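Good morning N.,

You mentioned wanting to compare the apo and holo forms, so I went ahead and generated the holo version with adenosine-5'-diphosphate. This is what I fed in:
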Amino acid sequence: MKGKYDIVIIGAGGAGMTAAIEAKQQGMNPVIFEKMPVVGGNTLKASSGMNASQTKVEAAQSVKDSNDLFYEETLKGGGGTNDKVLLRYFVDNSASAIDWLDSIGIKLDKLTISGGMSVKRTHRPHDGSAVGGYLVDGLVKEVKKEKIPLFVNTDVTKLNETNGKISGVTVKINQDKTKKIAAKAVIVTTGGFGASKKMIKKYRPDLANYVTTNQAGATGDGIKMIEKVGGYAIDMNKIQIHPTVNQSKHILIGEATRGEGGILVNQSGKRFYNEMNTRDKVSAAINKQKGKYAWVVIDSGVRQRSSAIDFYIKDKLDVKGNTLAELAKKMKVPAATLAKTVATWNKAVSSKNDTEFGRTTGMDHGLTTGPYYAFKIAPGIHYTMGGVKINTKTEVLTKQQQPIPALYAAGEVTGGLHGNNRIGGNSVADIVIFGRQAGTQAAAYVKSQE
Ligand code: ADP
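and this is what came out, ligand included:
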């Protein structure tokens, strides 16, 4: 580890690695510090895909979409409380982010749909795998190819300042040695705080007992460090509960499971809500069921169309039945009711009219092919919408809306883009779009100082 780099990037999740690659492409000499022993952060757990509009993938599959529609649906999903300027930048730069990923060998050329969206704009890996692992693998490969130094077990504990500018960081290596690293600019990509019981309790005491899907390193470090140098955080009480989380292993049953045709049933074997509504609403609906849980029910067709399901099955999160009756027995729900629920659902699929709950998406296929699977789920803490305030250049702002010189932030550590409810598929888009922008802007700043 050297004592000086052009740009220090804090956190090796999707946003951090993207920013590093972009900065390197702009001729910089960046370094990435990751506090955990492994890279990937919460990005590794992303399951649905990456939302983007007006892409070549959509065009090739004749999906009619527009940046304006993407904007409107994200704003609606966020309860109208999104930072509209960030959101505009986000949708307008989504297609080029897909192209950029493509240019470094990350091919998201399959499409699915996520809750709150009306068209297929969730871009998924061409091999059908979960997006997080695929994206992290691809980014790591590029980081290596570009020879960007990346240090794990390196916890950044402080942002250092000289003459009113950020001038580097202090790191703790292997929980032992402390070192000061100088930098011409710093990009904070430390992710959210969904794994910090203390912060959850502080901002949302009502969620203190929820399980979290977050990795252990998601403890809000970046927010705290930025607050110490004059930045500030917004929307800290806006915490996303994901509706479908396995409660014993804290593993998320991804939204694509529903997007590809899965339904939710309660312990009486009945559907109770539009499964493709936004995460906040679906979570609230599940919490209204007896026992505050439900089942995601799928058939072999859904399993085939979404290969992440193989991992859930490998993790033994499912119950399985060769027939619906056998599945009902394993779920301990009334078999006749489940049979009726699925028959009614299949009719809704063929007539494209869900008269019961008004679902309109994820209805390309009915549940018709055994074996059938069910995953018992309940809501869990998934994502923290709040975070530090940035502008579209990813500059970290003071309360007076002044950029803090040489300080940038991107990804889940930032707040505002998603409003009070993040749409599935928008976090991967966030980290790629704003990660790239952070790399670009930090590089431009460094060059302007030379
Ligand atoms: P994003 O989706 O915004 O990229 P992730 O959760 O995927 O966020 O990645 C954030 C990464 O930052 C994680 O790997 C996390 O362990 C790391 N991280 C968090 N705090 C620190 C810190 N203080 N020093 C170094 N790395 C950190």
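The radius of gyration is 22 Å.

Happy to go through it together on a call whenever suits you.

Best,
F.
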